[in-house]
Known about the structure:
The protein is globular. By secondary structure, it is mostly beta strands. Strand 10 (167-180) and strand 11 (183-197) form a beta hairpin. The chain has one helix and 14 strands; from the N terminus they run E-E-E-E-E-E-E-E-E-E-E-E-E-H-E. It has a twelve-stranded antiparallel beta sheet with strand order 6-5-4-3-2-1-14-13-12-11-10-7, with no helix packed on it. The chain has one domain (31-251). It starts with 47 loop residues before the first strand and ends with a strand. It has one helix at 234-237, and strands spanning 48-61, 64-83, 89-98, 106-115, 119-124, 127-133, 141-142, 154-156, 159-161, 167-180, 183-197, 201-210, 214-224, 240-251.
Amino acid sequence: MNKISTFSFLLLLLMLATNFGCSESTVIEDLDEVVQGIEYFPLEIGKFISYQVDSTIFDVDGNLTAVINTTSFLKEEVSDTLRDNEGDLVYRIKRYVKSNMEDPWVTKDIWVSKRTEFQAERVEENLRFIKMVFPLAEAATWNGNLYIDERTVIPIAGESMEVFKNWSSELTLLGQPANVAGQFFEDVTTISHADSENLIELRQVTEKYAKGIGLISKEMWILDTQDIAPTDPWELKAEKGYILKQTIMDHN
């Protein structure tokens, strides 16, 4: 199995990469709902979005599970461009973090992203995700983890987890109004990248994109347990994994 060596408090670190490609795995079920959709994934030098990131880590310690809650802040700013091996334009996204609102931003790392005629991609800790496929269509499905082995193991609080098991991307809502963190957005598209649950595993990942802004909300529930009681909520029975909620604060 593939193994990734680091996973820092749930903010998936993205590394610079230039080997992108196109996928034709899209299934569009309702052509009447088709829109191009690139405006939901804008890329422009100088554009930034800042977020509040609330995370919960479940750490198994013997017969007990420690629950660690943290809040931090993240800022992403498109800083530069380059060309990849296929000649496509790739955008460098500089990421800043801080633990408290009054603290100055500290440079964390550089991510990369690109948008082609067919899809929008990001590389996260050397893992290549297909975030959207174009044209957008409600109920469209695709393999967002086409380039990722679902058996890839990531250590979380010292425990190995197959984070990407049973992921599958679907556009669930197209161009609908939404309130996120007390802010109203008139035109939001919602994408589910994972929605899989059984007695011992939960994989749910949802992203919301606002037209002309980009990602405004991300929520991840990556949890494992040996408590098979079906009525127990995951917040109580989870033994390892994490919950992450990333919500927009500001943008330009």
